[in-house]
Amino acid sequence: MQKYLYIIIIFFSLVSCYTYQVKKPAPVDPTANNKPVPVKTITVVDNDPIQMKRATELKKAAESQNPDSQQMPASINVQEKLTPNKNVKIDVDGKSYKVIVDRWESDSLVVHPVHNPKKVLKFHKNQINAEKIAEKRFSQPIADIITVVAYAGIGVAVWLLLR
Fold first, then answer.
1. Nearest to 88 by CA among 130, 58, 47
2. Which helix (H) or strand (E) holds 105?
3. Hey, CA dihedral for 60, 62, 67, 68, is it positive or negative?
4. C-alpha closest to that of 124 among 141, 104, 142
5. Residues 45 and 51 sit within 8 Å (Cβ to Cβ)
6. What is the DSSP letter of 82?
7. Could you read off the pLDDT tens digit of each residue along the chain, which spans 163 residues?
8. How far apart are CA 107 and CA 43, in angstroms?
9. Do residues 13 and 7 touch, judged by C-beta distance below 8 A?
């Protein structure tokens, strides 16, 4: 019984309410800044090949000008995401690092590992995978689970003492 109690105490001392979470980009509103594109209608008379060719060219031009037809994904700026004193988990050339951002020197990011402030690492902004930048945040569900388990453990301990 005492062995299990020690295991539970060690487990709770190692659990953290903070997790690294990838911040999802804000959804782009497709109705914002959309201007109606005038559409020209052309009637083709007697299957004239020249008029049919012009009609298809105008249709292609109208489609290329329509912003709804081609949505370009928003580019992720690494320098805006990684500001000084942020605790992040970054993916550099396939390897994951938990670091604290110190500063930007031109196109290079200067960081130090979370538990080793004396070690300095430098990464070029093109080496960093911008889609896998995860910030350290407080996780409310994990905190709630830990709280419920702690209260249950206290209840069991009181019950065992009174029994």
1. 130
2. strand 95-105
3. negative
4. 104
5. yes
6. S
7. 778 877 877 777 777 788 888 877 656 555 555 555 455 555 555 556 666 666 666 666 655 555 544 443 444 688 888 888 989 999 988 899 999 999 999 888 999 999 898 999 999 988 888 888 989 888 888 888 888 888 988 899 899 899 8
8. 56
9. no
